[in-house]
Amino acid sequence: MPKIEFFSPFGIYFERDVLNNGLRQLIMDEVRAAKTFTTGQVIGKQGEGLDHEDWRKVRVTALSVPLQQEIDAKLSALQPRLESHFGQSLKGHERFQCLVYQPGDFYRYHQDVLPKESMEHSAKGRKVSLVLFVNGEGENTEQEYRGGALMFYGLVQGKSGKNFGIPVQPETSMAVVFPSETFHEVAPVLEGQRITIVTFYF
To answer: Total domain count for the chain?
Structure first.
């Protein structure tokens, strides 16, 4: 599995140590103590949210207000560096989601932006997508997880390139940021919980 530096020539941005250990542990503790989860949905062409567990299976949980504020501050602080990297101005980011992938959960091949012909929805204005790994892959499945690779498609040119997925080696507290039209997927988690913070800059 390639380290994240492999993806830099393809325009994908990364930043390590976005979360300090204390903040990261607080997020994990709240996720483990959470009693309420919602189902991760997909967006239909009319802008509606759809439960579609053949395509996306993941749980979403809310974090406490103090944690939300700390994470929002981290995401806002990233914005100038993202503008510089992607060469465009960004107006802000959507409310982030805390995603919890259990064993067997996944998200099939998709883009994060809606087609132009779709009805109005905030997803039409997305420019770049961010995945922040709260934990990483490893053998200690109390703190880490196995499987659940973030796979990028279409990076290799040629007819077969769009069908060729390249997995990212996840690192704890690392943000991976990419154009929202990039095709990608989350492979099924095998063990443990894969916890990520996800948002979209517009």
So the answer is: 1
- Tell me which residue range forms the domain holding 57: 4-201
pTM, 2 dp: 0.93
pLDDT in tens, 80-116: 999 999 999 999 999 999 999 999 999 999 999 976 6
CATH number of the domain that residue 16 is part of: 2.60.120.620
Q: What contacts 59, CB < 8 A, 6 or more positions away?
A: 37, 38, 39, 40, 99, 100, 101, 102, 105
Burial letters for 110-146: b for 16+ Cβ neighbours within 10 Å, e otherwise?
A: bbbbbeeeeeebebbebbbbbbbbbbbbeeeeeebbe
pLDDT, tens digit, 9 for 90 and up, residues 187-200: 999 999 999 999 99
